[in-house]
Amino acid sequence: MQSRLLSRRGPVETWYHAQPDRTFVIETRQDVRPILERNKALQTANDGFNRKRDLARVASIPIVVQYEWLKRYGVNIFDPDQEKAVRRLLNDPEWRYLRTSEIYL
């Protein structure tokens, strides 16, 4: 199998993989560990609100997870009409390390 890097934009890489059957796969990669470690630290840092208590920190979602949600669930985090679906995913234990506070959504 032949592979080659197509692009690198910040922490996100896009790879091309040629398959033996003459098809190909496009893969998007990102090392999410630094983001998830920061999210875990922020979960216990404070209650998630700013000093004025008019804004709340809720989650930090890596780009590859945004792609995964779009592919797997059809959820676009930037679409205001899909706010309930984003909340459902952020409250799902599978995605708990995306949360940066325990504020209930």
Describe the structure.
The structure is a single chain. This protein has 105 residues and is α+β, with helices and mostly antiparallel strands. It has 2 domains: 1-30, no CATH class; 32-105, no CATH class. The protein is built from 3 helices and 3 strands. It has a 3-stranded antiparallel sheet with strand order 1-2-3, with no helix packed on it. β1 and β2 form a beta hairpin. The longest helix has 11 residues, at 33-43. It is elongated and about 55 Å long. The model has no long low-confidence stretch (mean pLDDT 92).
What's the SSE blueprint?
Layout: E1 2-9, E2 12-18, E3 24-30, H1 33-43, H2 63-73, H3 83-90
**Unreliably modeled segments:** none
Give the number of helices: 3
Instruction: Tell me the major beta sheet.
Output: 3 strands, antiparallel
What is the share of helical residues?
25-40%
Structural class: alpha+beta
Distance between the termini: 44 Å
Number of separate strands: 3
Question: What would you say about this model in short?
Answer:
The protein folds into 2 domains: 1-30, no CATH class; 32-105, no CATH class. It has 3 helices and 3 strands. The chain has a 3-stranded antiparallel sheet, with no helix packed on it.
Features:
three-stranded antiparallel sheet; alpha+beta; 3 helices; 105 residues; 2 domains
